[in-house]
Amino acid sequence: MLSGSCHCGAVRISIPRAPETLTNCDCSICRRYGTLWAYYSQDLVSIEAAPGTTQAYSWGKRYLQFVRCSDCGCVTHWEPIVPVRGSRVGVNARNFQPEQLGAVRIRRLDGAVTEEYLD
User: Fold this and answer.
1) Domain count across the chain
2) CB 95 within 8 A of CB 5
3) 58 falls within a domain
């Protein structure tokens, strides 16, 4: 089990293992957030935060929301607004110590146009 947190520590994230790959997406929001996404089944990810500690943002079709710490502002993850069994979440790997993740391949996703990996 790997543990990470936002900058101030108010939001803690636990994942079962290091990801096989990370995704660097260039869509309009991921590009601005500067995130590296690791994907997991929602039931494998633990998010610990006191009530009111996080804020969510959604736009467009509103099928998922980006969650950040309401104190330090770090984006911690995205999740489906209406989760169904087997839903996946994106965990921002930048909230983990690099040595926890090891040498993970970073894939580039053209989220802005084709929604296809470029490598």
Assistant:
1) 1
2) yes
3) yes
Residue 57 lies in a domain: yes
Residue ranges in the chain whose pLDDT is less than 50? none
pLDDT at 26: 96
Burial 62-101 (b: 16+ CB within 10 A, else e): eebbbbbbbbeebbbbbbeeeeeeeebbbbbbbbbeeeeb
* 26 within domain boundaries: yes
pTM higher than 0.70 for the full model?
Answer: yes
* CATH code where residue 80 lies: 2.170.150.70
End-to-end CA distance of the chain: 29
Residue 33 structure tokens = 């957030």
Task: Identify the pLDDT of residue 84.
Answer: 82
Cα–chain-centroid distance for residue 12? Answer: 12
Residue 96 domain flag: yes
Q: Which residues pair with 91 in a beta bridge?
A: 38, 77
Residue 2: the pLDDT is 96
